[in-house]
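Re-run requested by the PI after the first attempt was lost when the workstation crashed. Everything re-entered from the original request form. Ligand of interest: zinc ion.
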Amino acid sequence: MTTTIPSAPIGYVSKQTGMRWVPVIGLEVHCQLGTRTKLFCGCAVQFGAPPNSLTCPVCTAQPGALPVLNREALDLAVRAALALGCDVREQSKFDRKHYFYCDLPKGYQISQYDQPYCQGGGITLSNGRRIRLTRIHMEEDAGKAIHDRGGTTLVDLNRAGVPLIESVTEADVTSAAEAVEYLTTLKAILQYVGVSDCDMEKGELRCDVNISMRPEGEAWRTKVEIKNLNSFRFVEAAIEYEARRQVEAYESGDPARFPVQETRLWDPAKNATRTMRSKESAHDYRYFPEPDLLPVTIAKAEIERLRGCIPELPHARRERYQKELGLSAYDAGVLTSSRALADFFEAVARLSQRPKEAANWIGNDLAREFADESFGVLDVDAMAMKPHDLSELLRLLEEGAVNVAGARKVLRVLMKDGGRPRELVKTLGLEQVQDEGQLEAWCREALVGKDKVVLDVKAGKEQALNALLGPVMKASKGTANPERVKAILLRLVQSS
Ligand SMILES: [Zn+2]
């Protein structure tokens, strides 16, 4: 591993001493490949199946059972590497990584050690800093040990042998915010290229953080590993906590308190990290080449074939939305934050022929509802609304059949329960009054005794009309179209 010290002028300024401390952070991310079957056997990969129902002699390590590499897993791993700008090796190999634990029936994990299938690559953050990848390697997952309260441990081997890639960065990350941006971008890229769903609740993406604090301009100090973080919020909180803990320890001047090389766990209930194991108990994995598997050979032509299958990536889409559709960098960023959202946006934009309106509604209204946990629709996949529904809603708005406030109500129903927009407008009583005579009558009523407004408008202050909009909307019980009401009011005033 190279050891360049990040040059960013950021960090934490100590309240006590005024000294600037810079975090040195590296990230290791395990991502589950979206294959149908496990890495070295034909068992299905499926979340939530009955315990030990997805097992065979290979993944339960019966004597004489031999592993066979899953071609689909290799293809997905290579796609991930290419999307992240890594160099894929034509020759790599698998190794045995030994440790003893009840969820690992073989007593070793098949992984890649000194010859991973790819190296290099990286992700550039919005502040222009590049987080370099050291390597990505393939490995199999272990099973799951469930320690129950009675002191019994239950083992479920459904997960044993599930294919993973582990990506390891250089220690280029210098803040919690950078870590979160790197992880968000990594997740989006892996989803875009169809390598993984990256569902963190199912453990399909898990992150380890290596962090040490150094005074600005000084050399690195002892690093601490925080393991198994399964949400970006926890990553952020754990880095903030650990940065503070280490600085406080050093500034106490008491060597007994100084950070030691160890593995720690994040405890969300206590909002703190705690020791899991110290260096003394660190594993010696006794790596050696896996004798039951041939070295992995990936032909150059095959790498190029897979490169040709890489779809447009988030940053390219972001640029296209800005250039071709005139969207702001912020909106383009929101829309491309996941492939599902970007695909949804493009479908609505195409169907409705109104890309700007589609971007507005998806980037603002949909995003706001996704962020509202009490609403209970967290992302595009969890949503009942289809692209043609939103497209139709945009058309109804354009026709003036519903106003913006009404459309928002329809949108919420569509997102949660689905339905047909035009019918929902009716059943929710949101139809706009199209009767010009009725609208004019309400407007005339609102104008009674409003001579000051009339004078102001005639003097060129059109915005004075806004004072009359409320009474008309109230009289119509919200079913008038504000734009049409404004136009009628203006006409009435000007002809008076
Ligand atoms: Zn199996």
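Saved to the shared folder this time. The chain has three domains: 12-304, 312-427, 436-494.
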